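Sample pair:
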Amino acid sequence: MSDVLKIEGLCASIEDKEILKGVDLVIKTGEVHAIMGPNGTGKSTLSSIIMGQPKYTVTGGDVKLNDETILPLPVDERARKGIFLAYQYPAEVPGVTNSDFIRTAMKATTGKDVPLFSFIRSFDKACSDLKMREDLAHRYLNEGFSGGEKKRNEILQMKMLKPKFAILDEIDSGLDVDALRIVGENVSSMVDESFGCLLITHYQRLLDYIKPDYVHIMINGKIVKTGGKELITKIDANGYDWVKEELGIDIDPQEDKKAHVLLGSCAHSGKK
């Protein structure tokens, strides 16, 4: 039986500025959903609220996991229930090694001790899958990492924690072509009846490796259109002007200009 993450009429603000204006979305395990849209329309806000970022105020609607509201729960409780957020800008944590951080997180989310031998074996396998440095276990969390290493480290944590739902907030930014393929293939390999994924991205290239079942366009704090990969092609060719014309939606021209970049341009030729 599938697990279900349901966002119902979600409204939210920060410092009295309304950002989300009624977001509706249903994600089941086994599915990949991609959210695209101009900058500043609430995509990252949505991911932060699902995970429990306290700086936002939820003013309406609900977020439910298997029909149970999670809005009252702190971040750690949401993680224990199987929700994971890969950050757009992962933080550096000096003095805490990658292996200690991930093993502690595994114990915290499962409530069980993690045998050292099985942890090392799984950690080494995940590092190999992601083509990460052999000394990763002993490096401090993200300290001195390139942008690409930080993003791969987020996926490493996801592979080890095995959440029910992962929210990936622009994990493609800063990745070179090879790293993008590696990250995409590792995420895709996890999608099954026990794992679902919400991707937030501007770029087509990532979606070449992680095939979305649904593509959603978010504008002005709402999901205004849902479809398949055909929406990606239209965005690639025309930005979001056609959405404005089709649905009669006004988009800030500056935001639209920032968002309409070549969709493959996030992948750099130089390796990170």
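The chain has a mean pLDDT of 88.
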